[in-house]
Amino acid sequence: MVRKQGIQVVEASRLLGVSKVSIHAWLNLFDKGGPAALKVRTSPGRERKLTQNQEHRLFQTIRKKTPESFGFTSMLWTREIVGKVVKKLFGVSFALQTISRILARLSITFQKPIRRAYQCDPKAIKKWQYETLPEIEAQASAARASLFYGDERTVRADQLSGKTWAPCGNTPVVKTTGTRYSINVVSAISKRADLRFALFEGKMTGERFCSFLGRLMKGRHRPVYLILDNSRVHKSKAVSEYVASYKGKIKIFFSQVIRHISTQTSVFGQI
Fold it and tell me: Which CATH superfamily is domain 122-156+181-270 in?
């Protein structure tokens, strides 16, 4: 603009939103080397202390292992622990801010972990999802039966489930009772969200579960296929005799994998 269009440096400075000093510096570069002299040059910066292979090894370490593998008591990774592991593996020390940059470069973010039972067998779960469950569903469809998933759960008054949207930096506040109490619930739900439940105090017993089965069958003309975990109550003599009294209208299926799919949610949270 200055050399070819004759615009004053002050006006070019205003139009481009930069200082006159920058305009003059660019003009000097342009006069000496032409347009090529104005190309942006990036500084290579300091050489990284960790090689690409070492960073890949760190990524795989965090992805596949826990701090317990390195003698720590925590199951969760922190920047402090990552720094100590890096020192142990590669003999290099980093400040916490540098650890943060390394983790960001590796696309490792700070997340809330999902709890999963150590007894969880991925192969058994896969077989249940893709072989056993479809067979049960086919049987229920052939018998024109309603298929339910059943489970028991304790509900606390001070428990908050789910997440909510809020402005960044402002933690949302939900007003709840300060009194702590809990109650037990037994329920069964279908994929069509047909829900039956009952509240109870104390431990679940065979008699209580039979009472719930009676409520589940109330007003139903079709058979009910019910999927449960291998709880002793579900397999008790009282429940077996009660189910037999319905002469095939109730059919119970037991799954070893249901209890271990997640330690945080009930079985019908998986539907």
Answer: Ribonuclease H-like superfamily/Ribonuclease H (3.30.420.10)
